Amino acid sequence: MYAQEAIKPNTLLRNGAYGIVMRGVQKCTCAGASLRDKNSAPLCCINLDTATDPCCGSGGMFVQSEKFIEAHADRYNGKAKEIDKLFESVVSVYGQESNQTTWRLCKMNLALRGIDSSNVKWNNEGSFLNDAHPDLRADFVIANPPFNDSDWSGELLRTDGRWQYSRETPPPPNNANYAWIQHFLYHLNPKGTAGFVLAKGSLSSKTNGEDKIRKALIEAGLGYCQIVFATSDSGSHVMLPGC
Question: pLDDT tens across 101-140, in order?
C-alpha cells in the first residue's frame, strides 16, 4: 500500500473508512460479495502482490488490510499459522507521508504489528510534488485522501504527466479531488483495482472543468461502483458526506 498525507482536519475514522472502501472493492471485484459481511469475500480479494494508499496517515489502512487477510487466512494456502508471514507473502505495502510526526506514528504502528514499513517514505513536499515511488504500478489502491484539499500546489502541476484524463482541463488548483483520482490511477497496473473515499460533492461538481474530467473517466470505463455514505455512520460526529 502507498501513503501520503498531512493530518486531516475532518474526523473521518480511518478504520470505518476502510470498512466502506473494502466492502466497495469486494463489490467491484467479486460479483455478489456482500457489502455487510467482511468474511464473505472470495479469495481473489486478498490474493494481491502490491497494494498502495497514497494517503495513509498513521497507517490505519495498512493495519486493516492485515486484519482483512487474517479474517481470510483459512482460505489462503490452507490453514495459516503465522499471519505476519501470510501478510508478507500476500501483499507488499508502499507509502509516502508529508508530515514527519504522522510518518513516525505510521512506522511505529506498523512495527508494533510486524508489518514491513521499509517502503513507507517521508518527504515534506508530498506525493504530488515529490512522488517517492514514481515507478510503482500497484495491484491495489485503498485510500482516503483529504477532502477538497486546496493546498496541494496544483498551480505548479498544470502539465503533469499524471493527468492523462484531463490534458486540456487539468485538476483545479483549489481542489485536489480529481488530482488524487488520477494519481491513484497512475499508480495502478493495467489490471489493478482502486477503492477510495472522496467528498460526495465530487460526484456532481462542475466547477473548473471537474465535470469534464469525470466524463473522461467514465468514458474510459474506469468507474464501476459507487457507495454514498455519511461519516457519522463510521463513528464520526461530523456530517460530511462521502462517496
Answer: 999 999 999 999 888 899 999 999 999 999 999 999 998 8
Residue with cell 479474517: 71
- Name residues whose C-beta falls within 8 Å of residue 81's C-beta, 6 or more positions apart in sequence: none
Amino acid identity at 29 = T
Give me the residue spans of the domains in the chain. 14-242
Q: Which DSSP string do the residues of 8-21 spell out, in sequence order?
A: PSS---HHHHHHHH
8 Å CB contact between 182 and 162: yes
Q: How do the residues of the chain divide into helix, strand and coil, expressed in percent and rounded to 5?
A: 40, 15, 45
Helix axes 14-29, 60-71, angle to 10 degrees: 50
> What are 85's three cell numbers?
508471514
Task: Specify which residues 69 forms β-bridges with.
Answer: none
Q: Does domain 14-242 have CATH number 3.50.50.60?
A: no
Q: At what angle do helices 83-90 and 60-71 cross, to 10 degrees?
A: 110
C-alpha 232/C-alpha 223 separation (Å) is: 25
3-class SS of residue 151:
coil
